TrEMBL record:
<dbReference type="Pfam" id="PF03051">
    <property type="entry name" value="Peptidase_C1_2"/>
</dbReference>
<dbReference type="GO" id="GO:0006508">
    <property type="term" value="P:proteolysis"/>
</dbReference>
<dbReference type="InterPro" id="IPR038765">
    <property type="entry name" value="Papain-like_cys_pep_sf"/>
</dbReference>
<dbReference type="GO" id="GO:0043418">
    <property type="term" value="P:homocysteine catabolic process"/>
</dbReference>
<protein>
    <recommendedName>
        <fullName>Cysteine proteinase 1, mitochondrial</fullName>
        <ecNumber>3.4.22.40</ecNumber>
    </recommendedName>
</protein>
<keyword id="KW-0496">Mitochondrion</keyword>
<keyword id="KW-0645">Protease</keyword>
<comment type="similarity">
    <text>Belongs to the peptidase C1 family.</text>
</comment>
<dbReference type="InterPro" id="IPR004134">
    <property type="entry name" value="Peptidase_C1B"/>
</dbReference>
<dbReference type="InterPro" id="IPR025660">
    <property type="entry name" value="Pept_his_AS"/>
</dbReference>
<dbReference type="GO" id="GO:0004197">
    <property type="term" value="F:cysteine-type endopeptidase activity"/>
</dbReference>
<dbReference type="GO" id="GO:0009636">
    <property type="term" value="P:response to toxic substance"/>
</dbReference>
<comment type="function">
    <text>The normal physiological role of the enzyme is unknown, but it is not essential for the viability of yeast cells. Has aminopeptidase activity, shortening substrate peptides sequentially by 1 amino acid. Has bleomycin hydrolase activity, which can protect the cell from the toxic effects of bleomycin. Has homocysteine-thiolactonase activity, protecting the cell against homocysteine toxicity. Acts as a repressor in the GAL4 regulatory system, but this does not require either the peptidase or nucleic acid-binding activities.</text>
</comment>
<feature type="active site">
    <location>
        <position position="432"/>
    </location>
</feature>
<keyword id="KW-0963">Cytoplasm</keyword>
<dbReference type="GO" id="GO:0070005">
    <property type="term" value="F:cysteine-type aminopeptidase activity"/>
</dbReference>
<comment type="subunit">
    <text>Homohexamer. Binds to nucleic acids. Binds single-stranded DNA and RNA with higher affinity than double-stranded DNA.</text>
</comment>
Length: 491
């Protein structure tokens, strides 16, 4: 999720403790809100139920509101303050201090994606640097997110144009074509898209390709490229209607991509073809590796095979122990398709905790804006007490929130710690990419309850998984439609 967009995701009555259906059930309040609405409807006379809002109706609402003195106190308090601050549940912070029984040995410097949606790239590179920092005895290391960002924009443009060529005979106002036109080169992505980029283009250290204005503030550049791509789509469809052959259209596509490349090169500069990596380690010893390509840097220094990973999702709408993919989801034409194995959340948590205990970070995707305190770096379903203030809380399940458009993956981060009491996971430590002034010096505490409700995807090495789970990869994938929430891009 883009840092400057966080205010748009401030928890609302529909996004916090109201979602903790099974936690409300523990307190004897399960289905309280839906039942209250049902009872209210039953008490309303049929002749009082109208299509429009009447004056009598408004008067009734006001009288009902004024009859409860608690509403006046709530108004005096909440009307002057954000919900997050006014209704903050202090007990959550007392119960979950930022202390963890298992934590990665290395705390790498916190990164900052600024006003862009590159979290998935940041999270991926932050995960890869852990092993490098240990091997080279480094205090700090940052790999270049702008380098992958450059090629992601170019590849997404090609992906879009290829899909336009594949849908030339589809109706322009049909759902598929309109879906393609909606956001052709947005900043967001998923793990398999990250893998596709580094396998093709490699990796470079940040000093070899640093930030520019348009990597840190991507909105204008994204808008310009998007505008051009929509124009290209119009040209290709019109030329197809005029009877031009596929070869002519693809030749035009080549020139279109050249223009996109020009925009990227002007805005970001040319990515390096070769580089020198020079640094001092913790012992002040000098190291230098000269004249290496980004692909060599990835192979010889990063030394991690990202193709040997598996994306696990928790999608309770669909069958577990099945393989899934999303139609039209990707960035690099010719790369492996995006695939997931759908598992129960308890299994996903068990595998993630085991990886952390073994000293490995875990890339994951979640709905970051839900039940989240930005200032204090806390995520918990009961963080903001809407029930006390407003007398209601939604009773939707995780599956229902996906079905009704209330939740999906919005952001990717890295799990770097877990706190376990006996056999029970209590909370998780998260490395974010919103700068060190955010949360607890750039880190978050996520309770295990929040994981249940709002974590949708994690990435593990194949060695972290049992044979019966890996066997799911041999299945034919269930293909979800392009607009399915499992195809949401982390930003």
């Amino acid at each position: 999720m883009t840092v400057h967009q966080l205010s748009n995701y401030t928890s609302t009555p529909a996004t916090c403790s109201s979602y903790a259906r099974h936690y409300l059930t523990k307190n004897g309040q399960g289905h309280h809100d839906s039942q209250a609405i049902t009872n209210s409807v039953a008490m309303t006379k049929h002749d009082e139920a109208t299509k429009d809002i009447t004056t009598a109706q408004l008067s009734s609402y006001k009288d009902e509101f004024d009859s409860d003195i608690k509403n006046k106190l709530a108004t005096l308090t909440i009307s002057r303050e954000s919900y997050t601050n006014a209704l903050e549940n202090r007990e959550v912070f007392l119960e979950h201090p930022p202390v963890f029984s298992n934590k990665l040995a290395i705390d790498a410097p916190i990164t900052n994606q600024m006003s862009s949606g590159r979290c998935w790239i940041f999270a991926g590179l932050n995960m890869l640097r852990q092993k490098m920092m240990k091997e080279y005895n480094l205090d700090s290391l940052e790999l270049s997110q702008p380098y992958l960002f450059f090629y992601d924009k170019l590849e997404k443009s090609n992906w879009f144009l290829e899909n336009i060529l594949a849908t030339l005979d589809d109706e322009l106002d049909g759902r598929v074509v309109q879906y393609l036109l909606k956001d052709p080169i947005g900043d967001g992505g998923q793990w398999d898209m990250f893998v596709a980029l580094i396998e093709k283009y490699g990796v470079v250290p940040k000093e070899a390709y640093p930030e520019t204005y348009h990597t840190s503030n991507s909105g204008q550049m994204d808008g310009l490229v998007t505008s051009r791509l929509r124009e290209y789509a119009k040209i290709l469809r019109n030329e197809h209607a005029q009877g031009k052959c596929a070869g002519e259209l693809r030749a035009h596509k080549r020139h279109m991509l050249e223009e996109v490349h020009r925009i990227m090169a002007i805005s970001l500069g040319h990515p390096p073809e070769k580089l020198t990596w020079a640094f001092y380690d913790k012992d002040k010893k000098f190291h230098e590796f000269k004249d290496i390509t980004p692909q060599q840097f990835y192979k010889d220094h990063v030394k991690q095979d990202c193709t040997n990973t598996v994306s696990l999702i928790n999608d309770p709408r669909n069958d577990f122990m099945k393989k899934y993919t999303v139609d039209l989801l990707g960035n690099v034409v010719g790369a492996d398709k995006v695939h997931y194995i759908n598992l129960p959340v308890e299994d996903i948590k068990r595998y993630a905790a085991a990886a952390i205990k073994a000293g490995r970070p875990v890339w994951f995707g979640c709905d970051v804006g839900k039940c989240h305190s930005r200032n204090k770096g806390m995520m918990d379903p009961e963080l903001i007490d809407y029930q006390t203030a407003f007398n209601f809380g939604a009773s939707t399940t995780k599956a229902e929130r996906l079905q009704y458009g209330e939740s999906l993956m919005t952001h990717a981060m890295v799990l770097t710690g877990v706190h376990v009491d006996g056999d029970q996971v209590i909370r998780w430590r998260i490395e974010n990419s919103w700068g060190k002034d955010y949360g607890n010096s750039g880190y978050l505490t996520m309770t295990d309850k929040w994981f249940d409700e709002f974590v949708y995807q994690i990435v593990l090495e194949k060695d972290d998984l049992p044979k019966e789970v890996l066997a799911v990869l041999d299945q034919d994938a269930v293909v979800l439609p392009p607009w399915d929430p499992m195809g949401a891009l982390a930003k």
